[in-house]
Each structure stands twice: as structure tokens, then as C-alpha cells.
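User: Could you write out the 3D structure of this protein bound to pyridoxal-5'-phosphate? I've included everything you need below.
Assistant: Certainly. Input first, then the structure.
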Amino acid sequence: MIDLRRRAARLDAADPLARWRREFVLDPDVMAYLDGNSLGRLPRRTVERLQTFVRDEWGGRLIRGWSEGWAELPTAVGDEVGRLVGAAAGQTVVGDSTSIAIAKALHAAVRLRPERDEIVVAAHDFPTDRYLAQRVAADTGRTLRTVGLRDDGTLDLTDVLGERTAVVLLSHVDYRSGALLDLPRLTRRVHDAGALVVWDLCHSVGVVPIALDQADVDLALGCTYKYLNAGPGAPAFLYAAARHLPHLQQPLPGWWSADDLFAMADDYRPAPDARRLLSGTPNVAGLLAVREGVAMVDEAGVEAIRAKSVLLTGLVLDLLDAEGLDVVTPRDPASRGSHVTVRLPGARDVAERMAERGVLPDFREPDLVRLGLSPLTTSFEEAVVGVEAMLDVVRSTR
Ligand SMILES: Cc1ncc(COP(=O)(O)O)c(C=O)c1O
């Protein structure tokens, strides 16, 4: 135990990102926060930015705010997120929830491959991804095919990919096991079959380096409330490669995706640029929070964040392995994201008892405890305190 604390203290002392933790609101009652993979901590800058927005901009500028910069936020903040995920300007917007972004991307992709009649989704992907894939398939007369991740966290598309495949929807990091897929390789594989790929980046944006343009990705989306720390329900981003934008038709056209927002025209003409991905009035407070979170990740650097993430997850894996627990996260650092998942009998109870001690993990049905490590806010000491609490609880139930 003491050795472990020493190891953690050494890692904290050598951590080039250590100062970032002080930039977040830290509740003294929370001994260890291991759920930043669900909801990132609150940045102090965001507290100030939102106070100013509410008081001076909403309160003071009222309707004038729209022409003084609010209306540009979905594309401006989109470009800022784009920089983090290797997307040149003009291809990314921020505005809807992730679920809505998935629906838009899937519909648009199916329309871009009208002669093909199959959609592929990972069998155990996040529920919203699967439900939407089912709905889009049913509404567009396509057949849904599913493919499971292998036990080692890799994915083989051989049996499901072919001449009939229109689109493949994949999560970069699996929300349960934390397995990280090889995005460039799988994108090439899907393209070799003549299909399009939609990537869900919810669990990788801000914590894993991503190069969407370089990998030739077609469409991608992700949430901003995990490793981008933009707050509960903050708007998601949606990326469409520039080569697709001129022909892209999304299923929820609205005045914000029209060529001229204020023309109030009888007929809908989509905007020629990324604005065509939008629908209705965006949430300005949410967009401003995304801007703050993205700026922090950008300043800290995704490469440095990833390096710390690998150390944090490595430390946690060592502790869990030493206890002989059933860890479902891949051991190879190149194949895992930033959370570590354990399969445990009575997982819900374990998570609740950890919470009683001020350690907040994440429980996923039926028997998984996820430990999320957020490199900007999680210290090595915090990770050790959290895992020790978990091991204490587990030992006491044996
Ligand atoms: C991988 C993944 N996809 C989609 C979603 C759904 O996002 P939202 O509820 O913001 O629409 C989540 C939410 O956590 C997620 O983890």
C-alpha cells in the first residue's frame, strides 16, 4: 500500500500535466472521481465564462447577441473541435446531441450510397447507436447486420462487409470494455468494400489523438461532456468530409441548415457548407462551455494527454491484475482508451459502496464497474485511492 502511494507520488511529481487539475472545481467530499468518462469535471474557466454570458451577454445584449457572434458559434466551435480531431476548417459543427448527430450521419451516409442496402453496426455498441441503426435501416428499407468485437477488443469485418454494405457505424472506443479500434485501418477496410464509415468518437475525443482528414473518414460525431468537460448535455459535434458536403442530405433540415438563415424562403435550399448539418437554434451556453473545454485540451495537447492516459490506465491495470480481478480492458496500450473495466459479481453494490466512501466509479449493467481516468483532472494518487477503495470493498464481500 505504502509502496503504491509512493509510486503514485513519484508519477504525480513527474507529471507534466499536473497543474491542470487545479483548473477544475474539486469537491473535498470526493476522494476520487473515476467517472470522467461519463461526465468530465467542471473547469473553473467555464464557471466564469458562463456567468459572464448569462449576466452580460444574454442579460445585456438580448436578441442582439445573435448578430454579435452567437449565430457563428456552431461552425466556429465546430472548427475548434475539428482541430482536435484532425479536421480542416469547414467540416465540423457543434449543435445537437450525439444521438441526433448519429441519426443525421447514418441517414446521410445511406443516401450517399443509394444502390446499397445494408447497414453494419457493432453488436454491443452503445444503445443509442444500435437503436438508431435499427430505425434508419427500417425507415430506409435497408437490412441491419451486426458484428461482435473479439475478446481481445479487435474487430473483424470480413463476414459482414461486401458489395451490399452502404455504411458501417463504429465506436472508436468501446463504451464497456474500453477497447480502442484501429480507426485508419478499419476506415480503409470499409472503403475497400466501397462503403462509407461513420465513427462515434464519444470515448476518444480529447483523450486519444485522432486524424479524421488523414484517415479519409466520411462522417464522425462525438459528445463533449466526457473528456472535453463541457458539462451535462453539452452539444455534440458532427463532422462530414468536405468531399461529401456538397451532396449530403441530412434528415432534419431546418432554418439553421438553410442557405440563408433569415430569408424565410418558401423552398428549402441547403447551405453549401457545414451549416447544412445543423437544424434549429443552438444552445449558446452549451457551445461556450464546449469552447472552454476544447481550448484546455488544445493547450495541454492531446499527445501529452494520451501519454498520461496510458500511464494512468497502466497503473490501474497493474493494481487490478495483482488482485486477480476479471479485467475486460485490453492490456496492449495501443488497444485501449482511457477507462478500465472490471467484471464483478455484485458490481452495482460494489459501485454503491465505493460511492459511500467518496469514490465515484461508473456501473454498467449487468456486472461491469468502469474506472474512468481523465488525464487533465485525475492524479495518479487519486487513481490509487480509488482502486484501493474498490479492492477494500471487493475483499470485504468475498
Ligand atoms: C458511445 C456513445 N454513443 C452515444 C452516446 C449518446 O450520447 P447522447 O446521450 O449525448 O445523445 C453516448 C453517451 O454516453 C456514448 O457513450
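The pocket of pyridoxal-5'-phosphate is lined by residues 97-99, 126, 128-129, 171, 175, 200, 202-203, 223, 236 (CB under 6 Å).
User: Perfect, thank you.
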